[in-house]
Amino acid sequence: MKRRKVLILCIDAGSHDYLAASNLPTIRQLAKTGFYVHANAVIPSVTNVNNVSIATGTFPETHGITTNYHVDRTTGKGEFIEDNRFLLAPTLFETAKAYKFADKTALFVTKKKLLRMLEAGTDIAVAAEDPPPEYIDTVGPVEPIYSVEINWWLLRAVRETLRKDDPELVYCSTTDWVQHKYAPDEDLSQQHLVELDRIIGEIIDDEPAREIYITADHGMLEKTTTLDPGRVLTERGIPASSIPIIKDRYVAHHGNLGGAAYVFLENQADTSEAIQVLLDTPGIEEAYSAEDAARTFRLHRERIGDIFVLADKTTVFGELEAAVEPTAVRSHGSRHESYVPIIGYNSPWSATDFEYNVDVGRLFLESLR
Fold this sequence. Notes:
Elements: E1 6-10, H1 16-21, H2 25-33, E2 35-40, H3 47-56, H4 60-63, E3 69-71, E4 78-80, H5 92-98, E5 105-109, H6 112-118, E6 124-127, H7 133-139, H8 149-164, E7 169-173, H9 177-181, H10 187-206, E8 211-215, E9 221-227, H11 229-235, E10 240-244, H12 251-254, E11 260-265, H13 271-279, E12 284-289, H14 290-297, E13 307-311, E14 315-317, E15 324-331, E16 339-345, H15 358-368
Parallel strand pairs: 1-7, 1-8, 5-6, 5-7, 9-14
Antiparallel strand pairs: 2-16, 3-4, 8-16, 9-15, 10-11, 11-13, 12-13
Helix pairs in contact: 3-15, 8-10
């Protein structure tokens, strides 16, 4: 019986506008031979939430990851989500092993935090940010995390492993430093994708029968205004604080400014009034109570704030000295960055089977059972 082999590639911030702006003959041919879907990312449209959703085939209501930065409601203390302590669902790798789909599984990511979050069930796990010495020997020296070259190194490492170790299931996720700094029509942005496209072509040439899915965790847009929803409420007599969901250690990417935030109230009886104040604030497009947010966006109810807010197209949320400040940053997190492609090649499914990027993982899991 022919072995089924699957490669899932999440191009961080690899949204339609970036793909359309660059000359990508490999991806174009994959879409022509297979399919290209205009799909949805999970909201909030940030890295942790979406990569975990794809790599477990579930929504945050099931896997438990709702943010990059978790606040403990009982102690008030916050911490970066950088390992699998908060993960409530098995990874694709674990399930593939349980159902005897794979003798070998592999995870390739640029950021170390994703490696620690998703490595359960893997035989091979590599983060380009801190790669094993043997990969330096075979793939070459790696560039810094804040570079265009690090994603190219990662894809070369994937190709080397496919040729040498032949794992049946591979998940790969890049990083979005380039998109945070460069618009789709800028030279470095296009160079970044053109080289990724070239390496993907080599992977296909090595083994044309491999099943391949390419998607993204979110898009990226230019922002001009920053709001602190907690300060907005406090200045209106409703004591509150807020945390941008994008908050992580990679501040050179986005300055911890993103299009979604959780708001924490001192008095939950203020919820209805606070939501109305926030909805009346220019730059805030949507505001939901915790119950409504969990139901609407399939979030884990116990791991979000009292209120969930989403920004308009040009606004981001941050922890500020003032309620409103001007900014100049490219970022994500809102509904406006939640539209992503899914490209399928050698897939047993059709374009109509996919609505969310999560479906790449979900359908794979269903095929095992």
